[in-house]
Fold this sequence. Notes:
Layout: E1 13-22, H1 25-36, E2 43-45, E3 48-56, H2 59-76, E4 80-89
Antiparallel strand pairs: 1-3, 1-4, 2-3
Amino acid sequence: MARNIGMGPSTPLYRAAITATYTDETQLINDMKRYRANNDTLLRNGMTLTWYEGPYNASGKARSRSTIWSRVYAAKGGSASVECHLEMCEPQWQRLPSTSE
């Protein structure tokens, strides 16, 4: 299904980057299982998990995802801390040849 996110020819895209750092491997593994079901960008590096949410056509949407994850980890307590930041890209659109060429 096509998705319209309001992209103009030079509109930047934004995403939230979330990195959780753990001191307890059991909690890390449990969170990996829980998050992997809904996110194909989940990356593990030692005792950290990183994932991305987006793209969005406005920084406020990505910022809200960062805020949500900061609050989730603060409420959850335990051995994990989280760091969130926003990323922006400015895509360069190029026309592709048609399939009949």
